[in-house]
Amino acid sequence: MAGVARFVASSLAPAAQRLAPQAAAGVLRQILEVAIDGYQRFPGAERIAESKLARCGGDPQLAIDAVIDQHIRLAGVQGFATGLGGLIILPVLLPANLTGIAIVQARMVAAIAHLRGYDLDDPRVRTAVITCLLGEEGIADRLKKSSLVSSPMAIATAPVFDPELDRQVSGEVVGELIARISGKKMALTVTRRVPLLGGAVGGCVDGWSTYRVGQYADKSLVRRIRRPIEP
Q1: In this predicted structure, what is the pLDDT of residue 56?
Q2: C or N: which end of the chain has fewer Cβ atoms within 10 Å?
Q3: Considering the entire predicted model, what is its pTM?
């Protein structure tokens, strides 16, 4: 299964990036807006971060741990919901799951960034937030292959915002998300005769992925003094 997943990732990620860098950036920009600003009853990253900080007595690290735990549960719940019903409705639900898990993880990373003192209105920070969705292994692999030139920390603290880098990161992240969803689809294929089991598998996959992204963001986005964008 691991070999198949790697094959899917290597096959689909370049295809996703070839579709349209501008389109990938546009999709992720909308995801970030919902994750950071919130939407209707879905509170944004700053509100979540400040709420956890208040409940944790002003301790940023405890607040970050609480943010990660909350979003692991959210990812598991929405992953479970989209895994129900077997393969009959899976093709319809996968796009919603792709968007849902991206919003959950982006809000988690953005909340972590806010608790570490980053300005979520800064486009450099927003690019860094999206980059974290690749996870530690995904970023390390792309840095090694030179398909990514900077770490999230370097992006967030760069002297100026780089629109081209933002488009490049968007393409990589969209490709990674598609590969993850395709890998989960294969896992659910194995459990197609037991829909509830498929839901449990979907929830576990999304929860584990969110845990890994959260741990990487916690380690990568160390506290820094904010630097204004240069004109």
Answers
A1: 96
A2: C
A3: 0.76
